[in-house]
Amino acid sequence: MIFSKTGLLAVSLAALVASGCSTSRFSSMDDQQPAPLTPAPSGTVTQNQLPPPAAPGTTDPSQFPTAPKNTQVASLPPDGTAPAGAADLTAASVAGVWNVNVSGQSCKVATPQTKFGAGYRAGPLHCPAPIDGIKSWNVAGKQLTLYDENGGALARLYSSGGEKFDGQTSNGQPISLTR
Questions:
Q1: Which pLDDT belongs to residue 29?
Q2: 65-85: per-residue pLDDT in tens?
Q3: Closest by alpha carbon to 76, among 152, 144, 150, 4?
Q4: Confidence (pLDDT) at 81
Q5: Mean predicted confidence (pLDDT) in 163-167
Q6: What does R_g of the chain's alpha carbons equal in angstroms?
Q7: How far is CA 45 from CA 42, 48, 49, 70, in A?
Q8: Neighbour tally for 99: CB within 10 Å
Q9: The pLDDT value given to residue 69
Q10: 9 has pLDDT over 80
Q11: Secondary structure of the chain in the HEC alphabet?
Q12: CB count, 10 Å around CB of 103?
């Protein structure tokens, strides 16, 4: 008896298909029903009027969380030089997410090591002006500088030891970064 290769292949495929259709691997699952889900807790929904929006260009300080009253920002020398004991910085030592305090208002700024312009990309989250305009950052020696979209310096900071930076914004406000 002589079989052609095509015929043998067709018979093999038919046998595989037939055996696949009669499998019992999933039959035990047909008898099981999933447990019912627990309903989400219900509560009372209330309706109140929202306050009117602030006029463009104004900021309501009550919308930002405030820093603890005992927060202190180290003062910088008036000539803008690094304070005594400030450490040399590396991009790796600055990369991450920082809690920012600007004149008593708090927010967060992400400082990933993603190249952007002459430094690295930065992302402020719910920050007050001028920190809301941060687009990039870079380090040079002991100084961390935060830049706007045009490359203008928004703030200059120095390491205050550990995971903390202190400095001033371009308009003279005290600023600190902590982790």
A1: 55
A2: 444 444 444 455 545 566 667
A3: 144
A4: 62
A5: 91
A6: 31
A7: 9, 10, 13, 38
A8: 15
A9: 41
A10: no
A11: CCCCHHHHHHHHHHHHHHHHHCCCCCHHHHCCCCCCCCCCCCCCCCCCCCCCCCCCCCCCHHHCCECCCCCCCCCCCCCCCCCCCCCCCCHHHHCEEEEEEECCEEEEEEECCCEECCEEECEEECCCCCHHHCCEEEEECCEEEEECCCCCEEEEEEECCCCEEEEEECCCCEEEEEC
A12: 13
Residue 98, token pair as written in the block: 């920082």
Q: Answer whether 100's CB lies under 8 Å from 108's CB.
A: yes
**Cβ partners under 8 Å of residue 139, min gap 6:** 89, 90, 91, 93, 94, 145
Measured CA to CA, the distance from residue 170 to residue 147 in angstroms comes to 10
Contact 81, 114 (CB under 8 A): no
